Amino acid sequence: MRQLLVKRISLIILCFFSMFLSAACEYDFDNISNEKNEKIHEDIPADHIKNVNISGNARSIIIKQGVTNNFEFYNADLDENNQYEVEATYDEDGNDLNILVTMDNAEASNDVLGSVVVSIPNNEFEKIEITGEFNQVYLCTLNSDVFVCTNSARVVMNLLADQLNHNITLVGSESKSFGGVLVYFDTLPENVRVEFSDTPQSAINAPFELPAGDKFELGLGKPIISINNADKLDFYVEAVDYTGGRKD
């Protein structure tokens, strides 16, 4: 009975995070009132950028796919006391864009009522790397390979199967693992391999039967989602119900 109650509570939490992330990733930020979602930096054209590095100390950040050729930055935090700054620098060749997202008094604010939103241009970059001291990272399907190296952060991925064409790699360290990872699919992709090394089977929740070992694979096994060193790993599939069948 206790285990069943824990699973039901976990499911409620999963659904909450999934609905929040789905809304955040699909919302049209161009039509949001500036009173709640203000731009916090001028747009940056993609130009000849090949690699994108995102770091900082904001408590929560959403990385979403945009529809323009510009990087766009929004403060979608409902707490008006939470203020953010964005700094953007380039390497000598202008091929690498370094984005620093800082939050005033980040250590003093424990409430997460929203996020900084970074809208990525629809270009295909060689690599998007997310580092820093973010407490929560919300990652939508992107048109580039993504590396997340924010140790101890909670990572939530909202992945659309028909748009999932690039690898996602979460790299935790031996000393600090990810606080939790939630992988949300609208439906299971036809081709994907998910690797979850250094995560005990007892810490994995999934609405489908996972094979023994540290990975499962569908179709050709491409792209690859690699999750290294997570305290807890949850899967949620919108098109699969939790009695073992599929939703109509």
Give me some keywords for this one.
248 residues, mainly beta, 9-stranded mixed sheet, disordered N terminus
Topology:
Blueprint: H1 2-26, E1 38-45, E2 51-56, E3 60-65, E4 70-75, E5 84-90, E6 96-103, E7 116-120, E8 127-130, E9 136-140, E10 146-148, E11 154-159, E12 168-171, E13 180-185, E14 192-197, E15 204-205, E16 215-218, E17 224-228, E18 233-237
Parallel strand pairs: 2-6, 2-8, 3-7, 3-9, 8-10, 9-11, 10-12, 11-13, 12-17, 13-18, 14-17, 15-18
Antiparallel strand pairs: 1-4, 4-7, 5-6, 14-16
Give a written overview of the molecule.
The chain is mainly β and 248 residues long. It is built from one helix and 18 strands. The protein has one helix at 2-26, and strands spanning 38-45, 51-56, 60-65, 70-75, 84-90, 96-103, 116-120, 127-130, 136-140, 146-148, 154-159, 168-171, 180-185, 192-197, 204-205, 215-218, 224-228, 233-237. Strands 1-4-7-3-9-11-13-18-15 form a nine-stranded mixed sheet, with helices on one face. Strands 5-6-2-8-10-12-17-14-16 form a nine-stranded mixed sheet, with no helix packed on it. The longest helix has 25 residues, at 2-26. It is globular. The chain starts with a helix and ends in an 11-residue tail after the last strand. Mean pLDDT is 81; it is low at 1-24 and 27-35.
